[in-house]
Amino acid sequence: MSEKRSVLVVSDTGMNKNEVLESKLSTEWKVSVMSIHDNTEAFLRLLASCDALVGGRLGRELPKNSKLKLYQVPFTGFDWIKPADLPAGALLCNTYEHETTIAEHLLAAMLEWQTGLIRDTDPDMRVNSFNGRSINNGPHHLEMRGSTVGIIGYGHIGREVAKRCKAFDMKVMAVSRTLRNEPDLVDWYGRIDQLDDLLMASDFIVSCLPGGEETRSMINKSSFKLMRPGAIVANVGRGEVIDEAALYEALASRSIRGAIIDVWYNYPSDTNQNPWPSRFPMHKLDNVIMSPHNSAWTCAMSDRRWNFVAANLDRFARGQDLQNVCFRGERVD
After folding, report:
1. Cα(96)–Cα(100) distance, integer angstroms
2. Are 191 and 178 spatial neighbours (Cβ–Cβ below 8 Å)?
3. Average pLDDT over all residues of the chain
4. Which neighbouring-strand residues pair with 53?
5. DSSP type of residue 4
6. Of 3.40.50.720, 3.40.50.1360, 3.90.800.10, 3.40.50.10790, which CATH number belongs to 6-97+299-329?
7. Which of 204, 208, 217, 257 is close enough to 157 for a disulfide, judged by CB 3.0 to 4.6 Å?
């Protein structure tokens, strides 16, 4: 009988329910779950003998001369690793399954900007009842119908946002590096170099872009000058895509109507476990809806991700093509 393939699951990789992976596999694997922080040397020794690793950033170099063939990231981002960091021939794959929950979170915030139901109407009625008005005398609110959403980065998340906006009879504009022919979802489609056209025409501007050199500060002070005074800017991609100072200035001066921000500039660290998310006092502004980078996180989303990870490990064990291959390692030990 051949030896079982082995996979090491990083227990502190940012995912929930690491222990469920083994129960979802339909092929034979020896599954180990371990934190790199408990015993770093033991972790790296075990990793060197494993066929696959499930985890995120380790914060140190992968072991030399390891038998690693698959680095399965159980979430989307992998900007912390390059082909030169991964043993030659090993594959790095990522995982999505978060796009529907992010789109729902975003639409809830967009609806709040149009209706004011939670932040304005409900609190006012609890204090003032009808406030002496007949029902047709207000307070009036805005509609989603007929407004325009501009999606920057039309990938997994952008497409789910477009689907939901179309259900509200909104006009959908999008820009991305790769044009897709989806006239049922997108009314106007352009390349990234046509971003200014989208900014000038949109009531809601939604960034779904990943971070990195190509996208850092893509939305900047000049971009905000192009936006409509009533524009709402949303960021569910990476914080650095929108210039931090320019965003704060636009909100504080009310040159735009407001923002929906889920991704930030400062995050908890070993030295500061609860920082404010920006070097500017965004939390003191009343025209930004804030969330702590949790738009994707539901129990169902975590379960879908583990289903995908298990399915990719099963494909690996059967010698089948893997899904979501990001790159092949190039490091020669």
Report:
1. 10
2. no
3. 95
4. 8, 71
5. P
6. 3.40.50.720
7. 208
Confidence of residue 114 (pLDDT cuts 50, 70, 90): very high
Q: Is the pLDDT of residue 304 over 90?
A: yes
Q: Do domains 6-97+299-329 and 143-290 have the same CATH topology?
A: yes
Q: Residues 52, 69: contact at Cβ < 8 Å?
A: yes
Burial of 264 per CB tally in 10 Å (0-12, 13-18, 19+): buried
Span of 41-55, 133-147, 254-268 with lowest mean pLDDT:
133-147
CATH of region 143-290: 3.40.50.720
- Residue 43 sits at φ, ψ, to 5 deg, of -60, -50
d(CA 42, CA 265): 34
Q: Where are the domains of the chain?
A: 6-97+299-329, 143-290
DSSP string spanning 140-186?
----STT-EEEEES-SHHHHHHHHHHHHTT-EEEEEESS----TTT-
pTM comes to: 0.92
Give dist(CA 118, CA 259) in Å, integer.
Answer: 16
Confidence of residue 14 (pLDDT cuts 50, 70, 90): low
Q: Which residue is it, tokens 């009988």?
A: 1
Give the length of the chain: 333
Please count the CA atoms within 13 angstroms of the CA of 235 that sit on its side-chain side: 26
Dump pLDDT digits (tens) for 231-280.
999 999 999 999 999 999 999 999 999 999 999 999 999 899 999 999 99
Cα 223 to Cα 281: distance, rounded to the nearest angstrom: 21
Residue 52 has pLDDT above 90, yes or no: yes
